[in-house]
Amino acid sequence: MNKTFDYLVVGCGYAGSVIAERIASQLDKRVLIVDKRNHIAGNAYDYYNENGVLVHKYGPHIFHTNAKHVWDYLSQFTDWRPYFHRVLAMIDGQKVPIPFNFNSMEMCFSKKLAEKLDQKLLDKFGFNKKVTIFELLKSEDPDLKFLADYIYKNVFLNYNLKQWGLKPEELDKSVASRVPIYTSRDDRYFTDVYQGIPLQGYTNMFQNMLNHKNIHVLLNTDYRDIVDTIPFDKMIYTGPIDLFFDSAFGNLPYRSLRFEQHTFEQDYFQEVAQVNYPNNYEYTRITEFKHLSGQDVPRTTVAYEYPQSYEYGINDPYYPVPKKENTELFQKYANEAEKLKSVTFVGRLADYKYYNMDQICARALMVFEKEVANEKE
Ligand code: FAD
Ligand code: UDP
């Protein structure tokens, strides 16, 4: 390749692709975007497997946001299949709705007890509210305390031990608070204004985003292998921040997963797209992709998720591990990053933040406006 580029963007996930698209379309500058994987779309990558089923390679990805500007931005590159995510969790041999709500209560307790608990929740928190497990655990009322302990033990404790190797309270509270208790019968996993799945899949949406004359995509390439040979002016880096600095202050911890896919010659495998297994088995959840895509094929593929510790070079760093000492270590890297004027850091692993897709998209759009489009020539 003998071209020169204005920008080298490292990583073809949301962070890299959104910024590359903006640079190409709004600044009319030339971008080389590289990924060490053999595909675009980062962890949102989906593809048709050998059985013709559209699957998400890195676990279930459901798009949801309250940010209209993010929804409008992505809608330039895809139409959407309207979809509300519903999740069941296997508790005491029954599949009950998660987030835990009044319907879950009716399944787990006698009618009389469920009604009493509903009323107490309504009196204390009001109707249609979201209550975190940590708030509920603070209850002094013995019935609400009983409920809190039940949900903590059956929904959160063992799931967390599997997913993170830690108890819920050993992590930043924002993690378990992602799945609050609802004081209603709303059994949607997300309640955002905009929700859906890209009609032709995520990868197709990314293809449309990157399909621009100013963007050159290079896959199967670690940026380190080309950084000294291909000329460019500025870099956008979306990979793990500690690796950029050769882990100079020590490794930032990440959590990984192993996905196991199975295909069955039957229409459907389970009632909803996602069933969680907080207490039984080594996996945390089973995802059935046809529920997400609405695809009409006479077989179905599911993925089992087995949490794992992350090992450099062995598996992928999927989750930052949000807790105080890790944030402090991250800050050391962020201080170094701040000094590098020709490199911009943005991404779930570059920012070491547990971003959803809409959050990283919003962040990439903001970084583009504030730091990339604004900078002096
Ligand atoms: P990534 O998608 O990780 O992209 C970074 C890219 O950089 C990767 O492709 C990587 O290969 C590449 N890279 C790293 N280092 C280098 C290097 N040295 N050289 C070249 N390339 C490099 N969000 C939701 O909103 N809804 C969901 O339902 C949802 N489900 C999820 C389920 C799972 C199991 C996981 C792990 C995440 C889920 N997310 C979900 C979060 C979503 O995946 C992230 O918010 C999003 O993918 C982050 O985008 P990113 O660009 O920051 O990172
Ligand atoms: N969680 C749990 N039990 C569940 C579902 C979630 O304990 O049945 C907790 C757990 O700490 C998990 C967090 O809530 O890591 C966030 O769950 P979410 O479904 O948002 O996880 P993700 O899809 O990001 O893996």
What is this structure's SSE topology?
Elements: E1 5-10, H1 14-26, E2 31-34, E3 46-48, E4 54-56, E5 63-65, H2 68-74, E6 80-82, E7 87-91, E8 94-98, H3 102-108, H4 111-125, E9 130-131, H5 133-137, H6 142-164, H7 173-176, E10 181-182, E11 194-198, H8 202-210, E12 215-218, E13 232-237, H9 241-244, E14 254-264, E15 274-276, E16 285-288, H10 290-293, E17 300-309, E18 319-320, H11 324-339, E19 343-345, H12 357-372
Parallel strand pairs: 1-2, 1-13, 2-12, 7-15, 13-19
Antiparallel strand pairs: 3-4, 5-11, 6-11, 7-8, 9-10, 14-17, 14-18, 15-16, 16-17
Helix pairs in contact: 1-12, 3-4
Overall number of structural domains: 2
Q: What global shape is seen?
A: globular
SSE-based structural type: alpha/beta
Strand order of the largest sheet: 8-7-15-16-17-14-18
In terms of quaternary structure, the protein is single chain
Q: Rg to the nearest angstrom? A: 22 Å
Q: Short summary of the structure?
A:
With 377 residues, the protein is an alpha/beta fold.
Key terms for this structure?
single chain; alpha/beta; 5-stranded parallel sheet; binds flavin-adenine dinucleotide; binds uridine-5'-diphosphate
Description:
The longest helix has 23 residues, at 142-164. Helix content is 33%, strand content 22%. The chain folds into 2 domains: 5-84 and 198-253 and 320-372, 3-Layer(aba) Sandwich (Rossmann fold); 99-182, no CATH class. Helix 1 (14-26) packs parallel to helix 12 and helix 3 (102-108) runs antiparallel to helix 4 (111-125). A hairpin with an 8-residue loop joins strand 15 and strand 16 (285-288). The chain has 12 helices and 19 strands. With 377 residues, it is of the alpha/beta class. A 7-stranded mixed β-sheet has the order 8-7-15-16-17-14-18. A 5-stranded parallel β-sheet has the order 12-2-1-13-19, with helices on one face. Flavin-adenine dinucleotide is lined by residues 10-16, 34-37, 42-44, 58-62, 222-223, 238-239, 257, 318, 347-349, 355-358, 360.
